């Protein structure tokens, strides 16, 4: 017997237990509590206990309903009459996390780490209540992982094309949102070639990012604009080498000639794939320092003028 709401059938389970279902709360406004009593003969009744009616949090929208398996995705939940005092929580596949109360119509939950990729349930409820506001489907996916980058360095001016290998570069319905993020601040567009390969260009180095002169940026990638790899690799920067003099400036094309290249910043610690080029030819470096590089130039197939350059990253 539920007070003014009337009677519902009860099932006697044992000498100490009976079960029944609460009736609809049809009053306007709805009753908040009623006296619950049990009768076995429609005449004698037990002492009453208070039965409380409540509304579970009403959900109208939640986004995003997807995120990486390592968790950390802020899910924004919109609805009505959220009650901060009743301790709202979110449950992702059986894992309970606190809901941050923003307004009576806005909660935020942070997705917990999950043991596998795929769909799971997400519900919102008050912590001590049995009932929730309805089941939503949340998709966990494997985040991108960077194994290596090539080259791992480039000039301060940027625009080094970086070949990135790893896994989980599939774009997860985020086509056109792939990018590389440097120093957790600077983003450049990326091109996804396959699930384990992508390309992007390095940005120009902001010299104010380092007071020591040891210039490098951490690198992380995303295929969908939402889920990023861990910043576990670094891209180093160096200043462009400045060639001031070449001795001798000419020589025979059909045999090697020892050539001295003089200048400034010809060798730097952050260089990662050192090359000296005469036109299209890379020649063996015999000695190198900041101001002098000696190479054995030649032989080449035909005579003619060549542009001499030094690359610190093989590009």
What is this structure, in a nutshell?
By secondary structure, the chain is mainly beta. The protein contains no helices and 27 strands.
The N- and C-terminal alpha carbons lie at a distance of 83 Å
- Overall 3D form: rod-shaped
Structural domain tally: 4
The SSE string, one letter per element, is EEEEEEEEEEEEEEEEEEEEEEEEEEE
CATH superfamily of the largest domain: Immunoglobulins
Task: Please give a handful of descriptors for the protein shown.
315 residues; Immunoglobulin-like; 8-stranded mixed sheet; rod-shaped; 47% strand; mainly beta
Describe the structure.
The chain has 315 residues and is mostly beta strands. The protein folds into four domains: 3-52, no CATH class; 58-141, Immunoglobulin-like (Sandwich), CATH 2.60.40; 145-238, Sandwich (Immunoglobulin-like); 242-311, Immunoglobulin-like (Sandwich). It contains no helices and 27 strands. The protein has strands at 10-14, 17-20, 33-36, 49-52, 58-63, 66-68, 74-80, 88-92, 95-103, 106-110, 118-126, 136-141, 145-150, 153-155, 161-167, 179-182, 186-194, 197-201, 216-222, 233-238, 242-247, 257-264, 275-278, 281-282, 284-288, 292-297, 308-311. The strands form six sheets. An eight-stranded mixed sheet has the order 5-7-10-9-8-11-12-6, with no helix packed on it. An eight-stranded mixed sheet has the order 13-15-18-17-16-19-20-14, with no helix packed on it. β16 (179-182) and β17 form a beta hairpin. The termini are far apart.
């Amino acid at each position: 017997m539920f007070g003014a709401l009337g009677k519902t059938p009860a099932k006697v389970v044992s000498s100490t237990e009976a079960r029944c279902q609460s009736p609809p709360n049809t009053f306007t406004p709805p009753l908040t509590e009623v006296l619950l009593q049990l009768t076995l003969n429609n005449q004698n009744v037990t002492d009453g206990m208070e039965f409380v009616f409540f509304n579970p949090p009403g959900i109208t929208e939640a986004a995003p309903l997807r995120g990486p398996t390592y968790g950390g995705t802020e899910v924004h939940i919109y609805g009505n009459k959220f009650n901060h005092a009743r301790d709202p929580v979110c449950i992702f596949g059986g894992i309970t996390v606190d809901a941050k109360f923003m307004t009576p119509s806005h909660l935020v939950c942070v997705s917990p780490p999950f043991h596998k990729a795929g769909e799971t349930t997400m519900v919102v409820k008050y912590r001590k209540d049995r009932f929730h506001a309805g089941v939503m489907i949340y998709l966990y996916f494997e985040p991108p992982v960077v194994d290596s980058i090539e080259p791992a360095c480039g000039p301060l001016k940027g625009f080094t094309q970086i070949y990135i290998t790893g896994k989980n570069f599939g774009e997860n319905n985020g086509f056109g949102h792939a990018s590389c993020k440097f120093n957790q601040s600077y983003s450049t567009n990326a091109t996804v070639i396959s699930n384990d390969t992508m390309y992007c260009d390095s940005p120009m180095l902001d010299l104010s990012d380092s007071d020591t002169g040891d210039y490098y940026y951490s690198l992380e990638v995303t295929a969908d604009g939402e889920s990023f790899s861990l910043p576990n690799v670094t891209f180093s920067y160096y200043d462009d080498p400045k060639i001031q003099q070449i001795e001798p400036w000419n020589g025979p094309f059909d045999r090697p000639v020892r050539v001295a290249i003089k200048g400034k910043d010809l060798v730097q610690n952050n260089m990662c794939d050192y090359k000296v080029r005469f036109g299209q030819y890379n020649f063996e470096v015999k000695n190198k320092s900041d101001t002098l590089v000696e190479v054995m130039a030649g032989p080449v197939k035909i005579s003619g003028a060549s542009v001499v350059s030094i690359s610190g990253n093989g590009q």
